[in-house]
Write a structure and sequence with these properties.
Elements lengths: L2 H10 L6 E6 L10 H17 L9 E6 L11 E4 L3 E3 L4 H13 L8 E4 L9
Parallel strand pairs: 1-2
Antiparallel strand pairs: 1-3, 3-4, 4-5
Helix pairs in contact: 2-3
Length: about 120
């Protein structure tokens, strides 16, 4: 493997995190929610993960801003892996619940979950 790739992965803590959240924000062509709403949710997610010491340098949660998750309604949309649980209406208030209940404690926030992979466990440690 290329040393620069190994270095980049090590610096990001890739391979050490327990969960990965993708959030649809800053879309080229906003459809699921307004651009401002998506960016506000993204900024909230970044700030809260950092405040809760979940984001690194040895991250428990990895985050990725996605241009579009192709569910163009009831946004912002998020998906959490490894459980593959999809969430709608990811405002800062909803993201706080997802952070506390799912990302930290491994419990799906059923009120906002709308899809999941039925072949995967419903929770992980």
């Amino acid at each position: 493997m290329k040393p620069e790739l190994q270095s980049a992965a090590a610096n990001l803590g890739i391979g050490k995190f327990r969960r990965h959240i993708f959030l649809c924000a800053d879309q080229t062509d906003p459809k699921c929610c307004g651009k401002e709403q998506g960016l506000a949710s993204w900024e909230f997610l970044k700030r809260r993960l950092k405040e809760l010491n979940l984001a690194g340098p040895e991250p428990l949660v990895y985050r990725t801003k996605a241009n579009c998750l192709r569910v163009c309604t009831w946004g912002p949309i998020a998906v959490v892996y490894p459980e593959a649980v999809w969430y709608h209406s990811c405002t800062p208030e909803v993201l706080e619940r997802i952070i506390q209940e799912h990302l930290v404690h491994g419990r799906v926030v059923e009120q906002f979950a709308f899809a999941r992979n039925p072949n995967l466990p419903t929770s992980y440690p």
